[in-house]
Design goal:
Layout: H1 2-10, H2 31-34, E1 47-53, H3 58-74, E2 79-85, H4 90-100, E3 106-108, H5 113-118, E4 125-129, E5 135-140, H6 145-158
Parallel strand pairs: 1-2, 2-3
Antiparallel strand pairs: 1-4, 4-5
Length: 159
């Protein structure tokens, strides 16, 4: 609740008028309803990492190799990573996505429907969801090997 109040008061993040940021313990919203027409992988019964990023975000560029390593290591064990780019311009999204070589699905959220629902406070922000669809961890930012190690520990605990 404190996070929701702080974000609302400061007017930061991707909050639409009247929206509230998702928090640990909340259920993951159905991405298909937020991103119609997007090719969204099946997430039922899976551990899911939803990562919000933008082409202008330096730490986002640093996070992609780590996310690829997580995908390589844990996809066969039930981890699904979904990268959601929030760039307004399709060209910026496509250029960044092409450079990053993601091994996991990327979705363009130009209308910010998913970003408005999740309300990430900054880029990148990742949401780690358990097999029952509950948000278990929210990670803001990316600090190299330290963040990757945190992801590994949390993912292994959920798998």
């Amino acid at each position: 609740m404190k996070t929701r109040i702080l974000i609302a008061l400061l007017g930061i993040g991707w909050l639409a008028p009247g929206a509230m940021a998702l928090e640990v313990g909340d259920k993951m919203p159905a991405l298909g309803g937020l991103l119609p027409g997007a090719s969204i992988p099946g997430t039922s019964g899976k551990v899911v990492l939803v990562d919000f990023w933008a082409s202008w975000c330096g730490p986002c560029k640093q996070s992609f190799p780590a996310l690829n390593r997580l995908h390589d290591k844990y996809a066969a064990k039930g981890l699904v990573i979904i990268g959601i780019g929030v760039d307004d311009k399709a060209e910026d999204y496509k250029k960044f996505a092409g450079k990053m070589g993601a091994k996991f699905p990327l979705i363009h959220d130009a209308a910010h429907k998913a970003a408005d629902k999740f309300a990430p406070p900054s880029m990148p922000t990742s949401y780690l969801i358990d097999r029952k669809g509950g948000i278990r961890h929210i990670h803001v930012g990316f600090k190299g090997a330290k963040t990757e190690a945190e992801y590994v520990a949390k993912i292994e605990a959920l798998l």
